[in-house]
Amino acid sequence: MDMKLSRRGFLKGAGAGVAGTTLGAFGFGDIETAYAAAIRPFKLANTVETRNTCTYCSVACGIILYSKGDLRKGEKAEITHIEGDADHPTNRGTLCPKGAALLDTVRSATRLKHPMLRRAGSDKFEQVTWDEALDKIARAMKDDRDANFIAKNKDGTTVNRWLTAGFLAASATTNETAFATYKVVRSTGILAFDNQARV
Ligand code: SF4
């Protein structure tokens, strides 16, 4: 959404206008011009709003990302500001210190943006495609499950356990995604299942 003139920007401009006009009435025309030029433009003007969810914990607070640059025009979009979503029922616009510092997370030099793989025998991680990463994970899971799945315990009772693999999911999802994730993971027999909210 383009924000041409916010309430805050209007008040700031109106206040500056009154001050500048008053100076002008006293014969300080140049000062009026310089004062008006010194007003910083409202930082959210001409930004695009994108609603999202804080990535940190299972509270899953709603956030608004403000960005500049239109991807549809081939421009590089850059997030310039993040704040709590006042319309979100969970947090009503508030954020804890971790959520309030999300912009630093986005801009962190160590932020992981792509799947990385350290091949056998190598001492370096290299970037791979999502297709390669997912194929490799699926292959490893299938091989491990085939080798270690426990269908019955020593008493002959059906247990359907897979104890040699674990699954770490993310909490910043919808209820529906969490439900589907839970069903898929439990259907494999995995017992060690958690999410990052407890890490
Ligand atoms: S880390 Fe803070 S802002 Fe983020 S979801 Fe949790 S409580 Fe909300």
TrEMBL record:
It is found in: Cell envelope. SMART domains: Molybdop_Fe4S4. The keyword Ribosomal protein does not apply. GO terms for biological process: anaerobic respiration. Keywords: 4Fe-4S, Iron, Iron-sulfur, Metal-binding, Molybdenum, Oxidoreductase. PROSITE patterns: 4FE4S_MOW_BIS_MGD (PS51669), MOLYBDOPTERIN_PROK_1 (PS00551), TAT (PS51318). One of its GO terms (molecular function) is molybdenum ion binding. Its cofactor is Mo-bis(molybdopterin guanine dinucleotide); [4Fe-4S] cluster. InterPro entries: Mopterin_OxRdtase (IPR006656), Mopterin_OxRdtase_4Fe-4S_dom (IPR006963), MopterinOxRdtase_cofactor_BS (IPR027467), TAT_signal (IPR006311), TAT_signal_bac_arc (IPR019546). Residues 47-110 form the 4Fe-4S Mo/W bis-MGD-type domain. GO terms for cellular component: cell envelope. Belongs to the prokaryotic molybdopterin-containing oxidoreductase family. This is Molybdopterin oxidoreductase. It comes from Inquilinus limosus.
